[in-house]
Amino acid sequence: MGYKSLNHFVSVLETAGELVRIRQFVSPHLEMTEIADRMVKHGGKALLFENNGTPFPVLMNAFASDERICMALGVKNLDEIGLSIARLLEDFTAPKESLIDKLKLLPALREVSLWMPKILTGRGRCQEVVMTLPDLTRLPVLTCWPADGGPFITLPSVHTKDPETGIRNLGMYRMQVFGSDLTGMHWHLHKGSAHHYNKYKALGKRMPVTVTLGGDPAYTYAATAPLPENMDEYLLAGFLRKKRVNLVKSLTNDLEIPADVDFVIEGYVDPMEELIVEGPFGDHTGFYSLAGDFPRFHVTCITHRKHAIYPATIVGIPPQEDGWIGKATEKIFLIPVKTTVAPEVVDMHMPVEGVFHNITLVSIRKSYPGQAFKIMNSFWGAGQMMFNKIMVVTDEDISLKNYLDLAQQISEQTNPLNDIQITRGPMDILDHASNQYAFGSKIGFDATRSPGISSDDHTAAPVFIDAKRIQTLYPEVTGLNSGLIKQGISLLIVSIRKSRKHHLREISSDWINNGLITGVKFIVFVDSPLDIFNLHDVAWIAANNLDPARDCFFVESASGRVPSLFVDSTRKTFELDGFTRPWPNVIIMDDETIQTIDQKWSSLAIGSFIHSPSIGYRNLVRNTGAVS
């Protein structure tokens, strides 16, 4: 099992009707992004750009469907992976009271041993061609979005080693190309390679780094996987492909890499060297991540296999290809989470609108009061789940992917005054809403049933919204979406032009105390250009723009605190909110590129014409460039 090469995977995709070859010239500068973005948002196929000004075809959207992510990981259904993990864990953790029981473990041990990576002597296929002088500009590196700082390598598997223990780390970090032999290395504060970097800095030594591209898709997935620290990612890759990964030594450093990848980029980072300004970059949040200082990666050698394929991806306004990678992560890591962190967990789901870390939905077998809060605290303290911003915990019989049923459950079972928890902790460095870089707040909703309490007990008052008077008295309110209330969901979405300090808190108090709104549990404010009837976009924008401790508030009335949670998910500025960090722009394509692809479309042979998704988001962009 396992793919012999990326070419092998491409052949399998093509045979299955899951890939199209594009033979007309398409530039890696913006044009590939525009085509891939249109295709991924309309269920399109994987794309192989064969004519791009370099000798190497570019593969995009290879994981971007339920069928293709399963093909990439060698299964018919992602559930198979979770079940396989569960079987292994049961084999190793079940009591073994007799010699027979212990002997039964031998086949499982042998199976695991066959997945362990093996280091080979000599060179691998990945080293068939050695560039005389390493030159990154000979690769079809994408410039993805108009305000990007330059071209970026977007699917790199970055290899480093702990200088003290020798333990390998494999991660995926974007790499901005600054020249033929220099890139940035966008190591997040909390990631394994950043820890290695800090150790090398303390030792005053250069840090060897090797980057690979391509090969078996399991390698690429393993580089993204949120594994426990010090667990070898190539053991996970071996498990996924049911076949060990054969490693060879890099030519100019001591790091081992898979023998059958397509490209190898070797070099070093000097921790004593001045950092380089990297970015902006159109990121997976759907907003630009802004320029920052990151280490320099110096390239000393580039090798590749014959007939190499350059793999690339884009990120941006969801859905994008990374959403399907997230689906695999849900299934692969649900079983370990249930086994080691919270056995009462039944299911977990991260909606694509939450861009991985913003929204997590969890169902549990509830057996005691406060259990939902225990789950929230457990998850927020577990690995990369610490970056989660919004968590909903509900009962085991609720389907987490049936958003209507889930929203009705939240509406019926959650009392905003008692069933919500707000806490503080680490945030993803891409979170733009928190007042402080990489540190902010989180909110959890207990939507589980409480024995002896009916849904009627959660309703403070009959629902009433005087929409006509609100829009007459408050012209800054440009729209009210109360349609969900008719479906049993106590949520009002309000679009507004915010114009003064404390604006939203003042009008919220007016509405409650003047009887314009009663009985609505959740009121969410967003900026007026947003289409408040497009719930996908409302969820995406609202989660991104929210810092719960700052932006969630209640109103006091003559009788006390009202059980209505107001949520300010508008853009924050220094003038109106005292917000001191720069606020990023939403990512869209420029008009010139859109027009170019419109004109090329019929000659690309990729199906019926698809309008640019960027057109629908123009109103959300303020100014030009990456900063709003």
Give a written overview of the molecule.
- The chain is an alpha+beta fold and 628 residues long.
- It has three domains: 6-74 and 114-311, Roll (Pnp Oxidase, Chain A); 322-457, UbiD C-terminal domain-like (3-Layer(aba) Sandwich); 460-577, UbiD C-terminal domain-like, CATH 3.40.1670.10.
- Helix 4 (79-93) packs parallel to helix 10 and helix 8 (217-224) crosses helix 9.
Brief summary of the model shown:
With 628 residues, the protein is of the alpha+beta class.
CATH class group of the largest domain: Mainly Beta
- The CATH homologous superfamily of the largest domain is called Electron Transport, Fmn-binding Protein, Chain A
**Ends distance:** 48 Å
Oligomer: single chain
Rounded to an integer, what's the Rg over CA atoms? 26 Å
Shape: globular
Q: From the 3D structure, determine the CATH topology of the largest domain.
A: Pnp Oxidase, Chain A
Number of helices: 18
Please state roughly what percent of the residues sit in beta strands, choosing from under 5%, 5-15%, 15-25%, 25-35%, 35-45% or over 45%: 15-25%
- Helix percentage range: 25-40%
Task: Point out poorly predicted stretches.
Answer: none
Average pLDDT over all residues:
93
**What structural class do helix, strand and pairing data support?**
alpha+beta
**Number of strand segments:** 34
